Amino acid sequence: MSPPTGVSVSTIAATATATECHMLKIEDYKRLRTMHCVGTHFDSCPFQAAGRTWRIHCYPNGSHHNVKDHVSLYLVLDAASAGDIHVEVELSLVPQPGVLGALWPPYSWKQTFVFNGKTSPVHGFPMFIQRELLEAWPGFFHDDGFAVRCDVTVIGKVAEKEPVVQARDLKRLGVVCHCSDETCKRYHSGAARSVMWIREAFVKLFLGCFRVRT
C-alpha cells in the first residue's frame, strides 16, 4: 500500500535500559548513627548500573536539620559522567528472610531524576523513613541493622519516521487513500466519508442550537 502524497508519520517514544539493582547492607546501625551527626553521611562502595558508576549516601541522622529525625538516602552519579541523564530511581527496604519479613507490606520511594555528573550528581529522598519507625519495624530492622535495595533505570527517548503510513493513522487524519488496491481504497474512502459525516452533523447541530428565531 502506497501512502497518499504529502502524508508522513513519525513516532516519539520513551526507551528504558534494563533495570539493575544494588543492595546496601547496614550493620551496627546505632554505632554508625552515633558517629555521624546531622548532615553527615557514609557511602556505599561504588557499583555499576546502566553502564555508569554510582554510590549511595546514607545520612543516619538526616541530611539537614529539618529532617533530623529521619534516615535520608541519596543516589550519587560518578563525577566523570557528563551530560543530563534521566534516571528512574527506586529505593526500598529489604524485608527480613522468612515469615517475619513476609508479614510486613513493602516500603519504597520511587521518582525520576535528571542527573548530571558535573552539575547535579546527587538526588534522593531526605525523608526516606523516620528513625523511630525503622527501629520499631522487625520486618525490616533486625540485629541492629537493615538493608536497602536500589533499582536504577536510565530513561531515554527515540524519534523515528515510520516507513509506511498505516491505515489507522490515515483514518485519524481523515485522509482518503489513493492506493490502487480496491479493498484498501474502499476502506479508506468509507472511513473518510464517516469522518466528514460526523463533522457535518456536528456543524448542523451547533448552528441549530444558536439559530436566531423570529
Task: Describe this entry's structure for a reader.
The chain contains 5 helices and 10 strands; from the N terminus they run ββαβββββαββαβαα. The protein is of the alpha+beta class and 214 residues long. It has 2 domains: 13-159, Sandwich (Apoptosis, Tumor Necrosis Factor Receptor Associated Protein 2, Chain A); 166-209, no CATH class. The strands form 2 sheets. Strands 1, 2, 7, 8 and 10 form a 5-stranded antiparallel β-sheet that branches. The protein starts with 9 loop residues before the first strand and ends in a 5-residue tail after the last helix. Residues 185-193 and 209-214 have low confidence and may be disordered.
Named at the architecture level, the CATH assignment of the largest domain is: Sandwich
Low-confidence stretches: 185-193, 209-214
Q: How many individual β-strands?
A: 10
- Within CATH, the superfamily of the largest domain carries the name Apoptosis, Tumor Necrosis Factor Receptor Associated Protein 2, Chain A
Number of domains: 2
Percent helix, as a range, is 10-25%
Give the N-to-C terminal Cα separation. 54 Å
| Relative strand content | 35-45%
Say what oligomer this is: single chain
CATH topology title of the largest domain = Apoptosis, Tumor Necrosis Factor Receptor Associated Protein 2, Chain A
Principal-axes geometry comes out as elongated
Secondary-structure-derived class: alpha+beta
What is the N-to-C order of secondary-structure elements (H for helix, E for strand)? EEHEEEEEHEEHEHH
Q: At the first level of CATH, what is the class of the largest domain? A: Mainly Beta
Give a short account of the largest sheet. Answer: 5 strands, antiparallel
